[in-house]
Amino acid sequence: MNVNKGVEPGKYFWQSTLRSGNVIPMPDLRSKTPERSFLPHSISSGLPFSTSKIAELKQIFHARDDSTMEKIMVCTLGLCEKAPTQGETKRCVSSVEDMIDFATLIFGHNIKLHATKSDEGSKRDILIGRVKRIGGSKLSAPVACHDSLFPCLVYNCHAVPTPHVHEVGILDPVCKSKINNGIAVCHMDTSAGNPNHEAFLALGSGPGRIEACHWIYGDYAVWTRAN
Length: 227
Description:
alpha+beta; 5-stranded antiparallel beta sheet; 5 helices; globular
């Protein structure tokens, strides 16, 4: 249930919502970022990926002074250079190889990538089907990777020990047929969160007082151990 109607219905929810038989609103699962591609590793590994090298990056990507593109690059680089929170391991990646390297650093080589299968069910009520926890513990922190705006595809990947990852059957509430396979992440420790974050506004609470769950969709994916 959204307490604050300024937040898209269904964007954030309680873990208890993920119960078979519940009918809940589904947010818009379509990607909101421009379509881009990873660069080949041989090229991305040579990029001066640093705020101190922004002048070089502006030349490479033909970004004008004080342009929107320059501001986007500075913002993303700043997020990538931000120190990790307590217990967090993080890295920005700009190639498939770098993403896999980071996931194997956390888990070893037995890994699996998860994401919601499609955008089917967007912006309407859905029926929760089978729910299965597939990752998240102090010994096996999931690696979440989400797209960050940049001229080429850049993912901000991080592993924290507290989230729970669930695989959820998404059903049509009328005919009960399966229409999608969803992945949801529940952040169980929100004590370090910003009290003005829309998750707390939507759920009517504050940091450290609740868990906050959301769907993994669009350009967002989660790695876990394969078993």
